[in-house]
Amino acid sequence: MLIALAGVLLGGTGVAVLGAPSEANGEAAACTDRGDLDDLGGLTEPTRQAWLAAVDDAAAEGVELSLTSGYRTCGHQQRLFDEKVDEYGSVTEASVWALPPDESNHVLGVALDVGPAPAADWLRSNGSRYGLCQTMSWEWWHFEFDPAWKRSGSCPDPAPAPPGQSPG
Ligand SMILES: [Zn+2]
């Protein structure tokens, strides 16, 4: 009880409160930095290979896929999140556009933001071949890699709306 109270007091300034949901449900809350790597170099090897294969095949069809953001360090993700909190003035609204480091798959090296839009459309149609799927319907540029999607050759439906918000 004392610990919980201390947490509330310490978290009173806003951002620090974010660790609470993960801690509450017992999941690891620590952000594991994969090192000072670049967007492409920091991706996990299977993710990187899937991406490079997709880029090749897209190019063969005249589509130029580019990576706008891949791997991010915990510090980088935290800065992006903090900027969104400043911009929107609310942790909930900020989380629609950038997740805190402990929740972002960019930090794990399995998420890719791609562009331009027509190339993202190509990847949405063809990505399951590589295990690359759009996971959030409100971010057309955000794809993630999962070997299970590659094995099944199909993508799950992307989440229809950010947590706590209704679709549309
Ligand atoms: Zn993303």
Descriptive overview:
With about 170 residues, the protein is an alpha+beta fold. The protein has a domain at about 35-70 and about 110-160: 2-Layer Sandwich (Muramoyl-pentapeptide Carboxypeptidase, domain 2), CATH 3.30.1380.10. About 40% of the residues lie in helices and about 10% in strands. The chain has helices at about 1-10, 20-25, 45-60, 75-90, 90-95, 115-125, 145-150; strands at about 65-70, 110-115, 130-135, 140-145. It has a four-stranded antiparallel β-sheet with strand order 1-2-4-3. A hairpin with a 7-residue loop joins strand 3 and strand 4. Helix 4 (about 75-90) crosses helix 5. It is globular and about 45 Å long. The relative contact order is 0.14. Mean pLDDT is about 85; it is low at about 1-30. The structure holds zinc ion.
What top-tier CATH class of the domain at 37-71 and 109-160 fits best?
Answer: Alpha Beta
Give the end-to-end Cα distance, rounded to a whole number of Å.
40 Å
Shape descriptor reads: globular
Give the strand line-up of the largest sheet.
Answer: 1-2-4-3
Find the CATH topology of the domain at 37-71 and 109-160.
Answer: Muramoyl-pentapeptide Carboxypeptidase, domain 2
Instruction: Tell me the structural class.
Output: alpha+beta
Ions and ligands: zinc ion
Unreliable segments of 5+ consecutive residues:
1-28
How many helical stretches?
A: 7
Mean pLDDT figure? 84
Q: Tell me how many strands there are.
A: 4
User: Radius of gyration over alpha carbons?
Assistant: 17 Å
Topology as H/E string?
HHHEHHEHEEH
Strand fraction: 5-15%
Oligomeric category: single chain
**Percentage of helical residues?**
40-55%
CATH architecture assignment name of the domain at 37-71 and 109-160? 2-Layer Sandwich
Strand count, sense and barrel status of the largest sheet are: 4 strands, antiparallel
